[in-house]
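Example 3.2
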Amino acid sequence: MCISELELAAFHEGGHVVYAEMSGYKSTGINLDNEIHGNGVSGFRFQNDRNIVNELIRFENTVNLNTILSLDITHTSLVASRIFNIFAAGSCAEYIFRCNRNLPQRIELEISGHDLTAFDHIESFVNTHLTNIPLRPNLTTLLLTTNQDDIWMHINALAQSILQKENHSLTSREITQVLQGTNFYEMFNIER
């Protein structure tokens, strides 16, 4: 099977969107760059968690810790775990697609680019301030979960829809329609 960069990007972005939607965050759209194959962008509305997410993904030594630490640490921990999974889910979906859903015994999952930067920022924050959350060991579990039929079918539906569109993008409304068509919201008890 010859896999194109566009296909990889479609599955990658589909993984982000499915995990964001499962976490209760609304997707604002997916856009694959037709000029630079392999580049894609997904947008999300993080609602009440927006400030936490913004701090987590740009965490550096200069972060405004008062913003984070003034919040409920239990909730911040939950948000950190969700966002970590959302960023990792793109690479998981891409890896699964590359393997044609036949995962090898030795898994070599690579997270790169913007996802890696956000991933590292979240991990740095968690290790510094929320040491009770093991994130990296959960990658294999996330990969195996993503490969389950009841998750993969939604990622596949999104990726196929993106690839069928001439502009290789989906609006928020189109994402909702695709996921409604796979009974995603009913399966995961998500209200839309």
